[in-house]
Description:
The complex is a heterodimer of chains A (426) and B (261).
Chain A: E1 7-12, H1 16-24, E2 32-36, H2 44-54, H3 68-81, E3 86-90, H4 97-109, E4 113-119, H5 124-130, E5 135-137, H6 140-160, H7 180-187, H8 190-212, H9 221-233, H10 238-254, E6 257-261, H11 263-268, H12 271-279, H13 281-287, H14 294-303, H15 308-311, E7 325-328, E8 331-334, H16 340-352, E9 363-364, E10 369-370, H17 373-387, H18 403-409, E11 412-416, H19 420-423
Parallel strand pairs in A: 1-4, 1-5, 2-3, 3-4
Antiparallel strand pairs in A: 6-11, 7-8, 9-10
Chain B: E1 3-6, H1 30-45, E2 48-52, H2 59-69, E3 74-78, H3 85-97, H4 105-118, E4 122-126, H5 133-146, E5 152-156, H6 158-166, H7 168-171, E6 174-179, H8 185-195, H9 197-200, H10 204-215, H11 219-236, H12 244-260
Parallel strand pairs in B: 2-5, 2-6, 3-4, 4-5
Antiparallel strand pairs in B: 1-3
Amino acid sequence: MSDHAGVHVTIADSDSSHVRFLASLNDVDAGVISVRARATDRRFGGLAKSILAGLGKSGEVSGVGRNEQEDTSLAASWLVAHQISDLIVAGIECLPAKALDELVRIGVLCRLDLWLVGDHMVGAHAVSVLENWPTRPLAQQAFDRHWRTRLATQDDRRDSCATDDSGWPSEVPYADFPVYLAEVHRHLTPEHAHLVDQHFRHAHREAVEAIKQVDADELSEETVTHMLQRLLQRCTSQPQIITTARAFQVAAFRAGLFVQVDLSALVASRSHDVAAVVADPNTWRKMRAYRQPYRPTTCLLSGLEVDVATQQKLRVGDVADSGQSVTVEGETHHVPEAAVPLVRAQKLQRLAEGASPTDLLFAAGSSQKPIFYRTLIRAADDAARELGVILNHGRLTRTSVNANQWRQRRGISIQQLVAPREGRAA
Amino acid sequence: MTTTQNQAPAPKKLRHLAGLPTNMPVVETVAFRKTQVVAQSAVQFGEIAAFIGNAGLGKSFAVDYAVRTSEMPSLWVQMGPAPKPKEVTVRLLNQLIRSEPNGPIYRLTDQLVAELAADPHIVVIDDAQNLSKEGLDQIRLLHDLGESTFPLFLAGGEGCGETLRSDPQLADRVGGWVQFRPLDGDQLHSALSVYHPFYANTSPTLIDRVDARYAHGVFRRWARLLKTALPRAQRNGTPDCLTETVARAALATLVHEREDG
């Protein structure tokens, strides 16, 4: 079997079990999409819908749409965003010549291995189309053998993926920051204490580095709040959020800042819940249901506490080509691995629509029409209602939260203990 | 075009000809028994099964019995002439969700497949010989997309059998075939004896003559004859069996009926 992307053509004497076998090959995570053409697919747009369905797009959620041209464009963007390597299309004898030609063209553009399967036949029209492309005929036996082996590999990979067990204790001491680590070592098991200790030191190092980056004169309450916000954003559990807060307090104290944290208020804010949802790969698997990539992208940014007004100002170039990060007002936000294809799809779709890196990220169509504020807000509400994915602290207002409000909601206050120049000792 | 939805698993009123005495037995011909076996397998494995035979040979009766004795609910649709794929889909969906579905064929197909996956039903397409190639392709697609979550029964006349067999895509997916043929000889006599004592008491020679003249092994015609002959036999004073006189009188109306259409 060639390692190069290409077009393979097989005529299969499919019975019901072979049909099921072909359908079972669909696995987005493994980079394989397997779909069946329909006799009612008069144009490629119909097949594009099937490809989107294979990629996990649901017809039951918002943003389904009927625009075949849009479906074709989105199908290509999603195939590339998910790094799909193989596209299997069965029943190609149903496809009109133009649709088949479009399929091969998209396969080549997206650099896929395209596996075309005729059900007992391919018509003369299909032969005349395929003659224009470098294709490789493949006997059914060879096709089946290749994919049974591949399927076994995919199954092995799924079985070996262990669920992530962070090993964190369910609770940590509510001790104040000067004695926090001592209390951790006193009350927790050695294993748990070690884990918490390591996290504390790591968070402390990050906080110290962040404080060092800022001039003493610019070390305002707002700046400090922002630093703490970034650190707490990554915390997905109550013990993590408490440990990180205490570590930050130590670093801030050494820099002449007294950061008070009401742990009960901090925990009650449930921001670790949202962070946990953002960090959970299942969240982004659910979000694959959306055909329009702006939806999961805006939800992710909301989960990272980027308010909608700020999102609307983002540019296409603010998203890394890999989709692994988004730069917001000079600050880089890392995208959780499972969400990377979704964010990448938004960038790819915008580029496909003719946008340049300086054009708005949240816009649509070749007219570059901005997506409205309310539309972005509604996307988060739709995700909560339709998929049970809540990435907005339960509040439906989307006005920008200032630093003071953010601190108040979390029971945090900041006082300058010494003059800024004197405080920068550590 | 008649449609029937059966949601109760226990057999109640079977598809006997209207007007016959109550509690008519089920005559288990070879084709009938084969139907039960093939249907059971199709239900168990979500397969396609084909039941082929001309009108009146007991095909619908046998399939109906198999469906009624299955624990799975069913959708029974009788096809008109050359329905388009959308009509086929809409009529099935209409029965299933009890409302008028609307939308493009793509979405309706997905909706039907999703509904059947969530709540599997035996899908019976009667008069499948009326389906064009397009209609058969749509039926096949529904079953393919459903990935065998629901069994599909295709019942139709001889034309249906030829169509299915000549379409390799569908023929290779059919897991079981049952061919219904006219009864003759000992099979006919045996079946009629079980059917009603009236026939059990009738001379085999007369049975053969009536069959040659009128019934030609078509069980529905024997049922029709029974319905017509029983009251005449009562009036004639020979209630226990078919006689020459009663046969002649009954056939006078039935043969006339046959010539009309």
